[in-house]
Amino acid sequence: MSCKQLGGACDLEFQADTFEKMAELSKQHGMEMFQKQDAAHLAAMQNMHELVKNPEEMTKWMESKKQLFASMPDS
To answer: CA 5, CA 38: separation in Å to the nearest integer?
Structure first.
Protein backbone atom coordinates (compact mmCIF):
# COMPACT_ATOMS: atom_id res chain seq x y z
CA MET A 1 0.00 0.00 0.00
CA SER A 2 1.14 3.53 -0.59
CA CYS A 3 1.46 6.38 1.84
CA LYS A 4 -1.50 8.05 0.08
CA GLN A 5 -3.65 4.93 0.40
CA LEU A 6 -3.02 5.06 4.14
CA GLY A 7 -4.00 8.71 4.45
CA GLY A 8 -0.56 10.20 3.79
CA ALA A 9 0.79 12.51 1.16
CA CYS A 10 3.17 10.61 -1.12
CA ASP A 11 3.49 7.53 -3.31
CA LEU A 12 6.04 5.72 -1.15
CA GLU A 13 4.97 2.08 -0.99
CA PHE A 14 5.00 -0.15 2.07
CA GLN A 15 4.89 -3.93 2.08
CA ALA A 16 3.85 -6.05 5.06
CA ASP A 17 2.20 -9.36 5.84
CA THR A 18 -0.43 -7.85 8.15
CA PHE A 19 -2.37 -4.63 8.30
CA GLU A 20 -0.89 -3.92 11.73
CA LYS A 21 2.65 -4.13 10.32
CA MET A 22 1.58 -1.93 7.41
CA ALA A 23 0.21 0.65 9.83
CA GLU A 24 3.47 0.59 11.81
CA LEU A 25 5.52 1.21 8.66
CA SER A 26 3.23 4.11 7.78
CA LYS A 27 3.57 5.52 11.29
CA GLN A 28 7.37 5.35 11.12
CA HIS A 29 7.30 7.14 7.75
CA GLY A 30 4.98 9.77 9.21
CA MET A 31 7.37 10.40 12.08
CA GLU A 32 10.25 10.83 9.63
CA MET A 33 8.23 13.29 7.56
CA PHE A 34 7.22 15.17 10.73
CA GLN A 35 10.87 15.51 11.71
CA LYS A 36 11.60 16.87 8.23
CA GLN A 37 8.59 19.21 8.56
CA ASP A 38 7.33 18.07 5.14
CA ALA A 39 4.38 20.38 4.43
CA ALA A 40 2.28 17.86 2.49
CA HIS A 41 2.65 15.23 5.19
CA LEU A 42 1.95 17.75 7.94
CA ALA A 43 -1.33 18.62 6.20
CA ALA A 44 -2.22 14.93 5.95
CA MET A 45 -1.43 14.52 9.65
CA GLN A 46 -3.73 17.41 10.47
CA ASN A 47 -6.51 15.70 8.51
CA MET A 48 -5.93 12.50 10.49
CA HIS A 49 -5.95 14.49 13.73
CA GLU A 50 -9.39 15.83 12.82
CA LEU A 51 -10.62 12.32 11.94
CA VAL A 52 -9.50 10.96 15.32
CA LYS A 53 -11.81 13.46 17.02
CA ASN A 54 -14.80 11.49 15.70
CA PRO A 55 -14.49 7.87 16.88
CA GLU A 56 -17.26 6.62 14.59
CA GLU A 57 -15.69 8.16 11.50
CA MET A 58 -12.25 6.92 12.57
CA THR A 59 -13.60 3.38 12.92
CA LYS A 60 -15.17 3.56 9.45
CA TRP A 61 -11.93 4.91 7.98
CA MET A 62 -9.86 2.19 9.67
CA GLU A 63 -12.19 -0.56 8.45
CA SER A 64 -12.00 0.78 4.89
CA LYS A 65 -8.19 0.71 5.04
CA LYS A 66 -8.20 -2.83 6.42
CA GLN A 67 -10.50 -3.91 3.59
CA LEU A 68 -8.24 -2.23 1.04
CA PHE A 69 -5.23 -4.03 2.53
CA ALA A 70 -7.07 -7.36 2.37
CA SER A 71 -7.94 -6.76 -1.29
CA MET A 72 -4.35 -6.02 -2.34
CA PRO A 73 -2.61 -8.75 -4.33
CA ASP A 74 0.28 -10.50 -2.62
CA SER A 75 3.63 -9.46 -4.02
So the answer is: 18
